[in-house]
Amino acid sequence: MSSESARRSNALRDAASETTGFLSVDEGEALRAAASHAAGARLGPLLEIGSYLGRSTLFLAAGIAASGTSTVLYSIDHHHGSEEMQAGWPDHEGSLVDEATGKMDSLPRWRQRIEACNADDLVIGVIGSSARIASNWSTTLSLVFIDGGHGAAVEWADYRGWSPKLAPGGLLAIHDVFADPADGGRPPYECYLDALASGGFVEAGDYAADSLRVLVATGPATPAALTRASKRSAATPPSITSAAMTTAAEE
Ligand code: MG
Q1: What would the pLDDT profile of 153-176 be if each residue is shown by its tens digit?
Q2: How far is the CA of 215 from the centre of ligand 1 (A)?
Q3: CATH code at position 54
């Protein structure tokens, strides 16, 4: 790594650490390392689902900066907040409510933060529904980070919509993966298990931190394996999934 790349990466990492969000610093460092690896492998651009106020965006940008490549991160969010960020939920942030519409809007603060940290050449904001964007997306990706809405329908749509876009050797990162139901909701953990069971991914344990898990797409078998896994779970959902989905819906 050149000294300029290292200097810029460290500055972005420091800025990310001071940015509001839900990622721990250890998780952010792991994401930075994963992003540096993915960008350096030159398999395509990187993509995250769940921009919010830019914390993970800047950790990922720090990884791209470290790689010294000219690739970019696409950062997808409708910016109206996930289910768990709406009024009455613990993650609600009242200062993000747009007075004119009454809706949450995190886009102005996300954009201010990315520009203040001089990361706008590394990051491209994509505003809209993740599922709709995925269904219109044809560029192969080197890294996908799933950290959007954590309800079952949204998480599974993000996983099924985006994981097949990875190049062989690309990285699938999922946040809020909790093996113990006492620690958090089920859908991220179930998607992580599904990826492993599909045969299209293996664990990249070096990048695991707190509730962040990272998997490597293993190659040409990936799309077929995912298709099989999707058909199987659509026809006969495993009991753990249906039980957890019911629980999530009741929350
Ligand atoms: Mg998260």
Answers
A1: 999 999 999 999 999 999 999 999
A2: 17
A3: 3.40.50.150
| Count of domains forming the chain | 1
Question: Tokens 């890294």 — which residue?
Answer: 143
Tell me the C-alpha distance between 175 and 191, whole Å. 11
Q: Write the CA distances from 217 to 111, 170, 225, integer angstroms.
A: 31, 5, 11
CA 202 to ligand 1 centroid distance, Å: 21
Q: Edge to edge, what strands does the sheet with 213-217 contain?
A: 123-127, 73-77, 46-49, 141-146, 166-174, 213-217, 201-203
- Specify burial of residue 49 (Cβ count, 10 A radius: 0-12, 13-18, 19+): buried
Domain that includes residue 243, residue range:
3-250
Tell me which residue of 82, 81, 34 sits closest to 61, measured CA to CA: 34
What is residue 42's predicted lDDT score, i.e. its pLDDT?
94
Query: Max Cα separation, the chain?
Result: 53
Q: 137 CA to middle of ligand 1, Å?
A: 23
Report phi then psi at 243, rounded to 5: -60, -45
Q: Which protein residues have a CB closer than 5 Å to ligand 1 (ion)?
A: 22, 147, 175-176
CB neighbours of 239 closer than 8 A, spacing ≥ 6?
none
Flag residues of the chain having pLDDT under 50.
221-251
Active-site residue, 92 included: no
Q: What amino acid occupies position 31?
A: L
Cβ–Cβ under 8 Å, residues 164 and 226: yes
